[in-house]
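New to this. Explain these tokens.
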Amino acid sequence: MKIAFIMEDVMGEALKDYQQGNDRYKLWIHNTYGRKEAMPVDIYFRSGKEMSPLELLALEGCAGDILDVGAAAGCHSLLLQQRKQCVTAMDISAGAVWVMQQRGIKKVVHADIFSWKKKQFDTLLFLMNGIGLAGTLDGLQILLHHLKQLLKPGGHIIFDSSDIQYLFIKKERPAHYYGEIDYRYEYRGKISDWFKWLYVDQSTMQLVASQCGFTMEVLEEDASGQYLGRLILQ
């Protein structure tokens, strides 16, 4: 099959297909550390019963006016909305925004979090390693400084991430921080440009958060190195 290298919304197309009942095709994720991997699209459409204890704990910590950043198909926003909480779902993918609107999410924003500053919130939510959209440690500092503008007094950021040093047990670590990974999507013969995603271990996150004026609290962690954190302005 011929593959076209394009800048289109590859992830969004996969989400739109699934929303419309077409799950015949696989969404592939290419990376810079190993073979490409299939990503089950239905993971973005999970119900509360299918979510991990860590995710459910994160949602329990959401309060007030909530912004769900990188919401994808909106599974977390839907659950919060069902609980009568005030939530806005944001994604940079036009396809994801369309899907969330079709699924009945009342407040949906199509925007890039790095440049958006129209409103302040009590809770900024980044799940499924959503904080990774920072791309690099430098990008994380830029993101955290920007997020200060989006927090109401007393507000907080809830996020999850993980330590992926296990990927380099049998191979040499890169010259840059090992949690800075390059990915690209492939779906139905289309493939996206490479983009950076960040996985940040707890101690590094503590350091960066402190440098940006936040206090970090670890709310939960599991045996796989994944953890749930909360950031509060100092």
Summary: The CA atoms of residues 55 and 127 lie 7 Å apart. Confidence is low (pLDDT under 50) at residues 1-7. Helices lie at 10-19, 53-60, 75-82, 94-102, 137-147, 202-211. The first strand starts at residue 4 and ends at 5.
